[in-house]
């Protein structure tokens, strides 16, 4: 499994290859790529920047993968997240989950993304007309994470 | 000493991204540390009143989390990654 942060452009193909190499005997790989939208509720934006907590961010992502591995019986999994400035339409996060069967891989990818948004120390700022504004945490993200926690 | 780190709005509002404070006798929870920080400035008081999250030695914690000498305690707003 791998959990990394980077300030360079994400290379989804490379992560996919890496995951496949680690996931011996997997029957399914589901990958998710999150992209920067070029708008928010108020209008167009010019990209975002991300702040992280070096050390804790990676550790929290790895912990999440270990949880997902146990819960969905994954063969392997990975997360790579950007920090620093990320332009519109660029990938911001990549998640890959490998399992014996597709259902577990799909569910695990959704679980990892829902929990990442709630529990991994990363903070977004949106750039707009030379200004930058911190993004507020969304109630819908909180609910998505709670749905998994309440299932246990 | 206790090593304090801040991130995002908490860092910007307090203007302190890291600080080391001597741990006073009898201060052994996050909640007690918060009272000490709140006395530093109105800005600290504001961020601590504002649903701030904390981590002790890079593990998410809460007001009741125990702290001891040389621990790293971080304060930050709700996370917004992904």
Automatic annotation (TrEMBL), chain A:
One of its GO terms (biological process) is Mo-molybdopterin cofactor biosynthetic process. It comes from the Bacteria. GO terms for molecular function: molybdopterin synthase activity. Keywords: Molybdenum cofactor biosynthesis. Gene3D superfamilies: Molybdopterin biosynthesis MoaE subunit. Pathway: Cofactor biosynthesis; molybdopterin biosynthesis. Its EC number is 2.8.1.12. The keyword Cell wall biogenesis/degradation does not apply. Transmembrane segments: none annotated. It catalyses: 2 [molybdopterin-synthase sulfur-carrier protein]-C-terminal-Gly-aminoethanethioate + cyclic pyranopterin phosphate + H2O = molybdopterin + 2 [molybdopterin-synthase sulfur-carrier protein]-C-terminal Gly-Gly + 2 H(+). Belongs to the MoaE family. Heterotetramer of 2 MoaD subunits and 2 MoaE subunits. Also stable as homodimer. The enzyme changes between these two forms during catalysis. This is Molybdopterin synthase catalytic subunit. It comes from Alteromonas confluentis.
């Amino acid at each position: 499994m791998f959990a990394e942060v980077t300030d360079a452009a994400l290379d989804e193909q490379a992560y996919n290859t890496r995951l496949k190499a680690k996931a011996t005997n997997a029957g399914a790989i589901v990958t998710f790529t999150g992209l920067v939208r070029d708008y928010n509720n108020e209008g167009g934006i010019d990209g975002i920047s991300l702040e992280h907590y070096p050390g804790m961010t990676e550790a929290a992502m790895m912990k999440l993968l270990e949880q997902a591995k146990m819960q969905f019986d994954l063969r392997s999994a990975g997360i790579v997240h950007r920090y620093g400035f990320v332009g519109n339409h660029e990938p911001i996060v990549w998640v890959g989950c490998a399992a014996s069967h597709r259902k577990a891989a799909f569910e695990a990818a959704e679980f990892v993304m829902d929990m990442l948004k709630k529990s991994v120390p990363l903070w977004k700022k949106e750039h707009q007309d030379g200004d930058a504004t911190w993004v507020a945490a969304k109630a819908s993200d909180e609910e998505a994470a709670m749905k998994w926690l309440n299932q246990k | 000493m206790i090593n304090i780190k801040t991130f995002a709005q908490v860092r910007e509002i307090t203007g302190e991204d890291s600080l080391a404070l001597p741990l006073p006798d009898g201060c052994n929870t996050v909640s007690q540390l918060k009272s000490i920080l709140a006395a530093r400035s109105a800005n600290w008081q504001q961020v601590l009143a504002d649903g701030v999250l904390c981590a002790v030695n890079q593990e998410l914690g809460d007001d009741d989390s125990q702290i001891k000498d040389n621990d790293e305690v971080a304060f930050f707003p709700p996370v917004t990654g992904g």
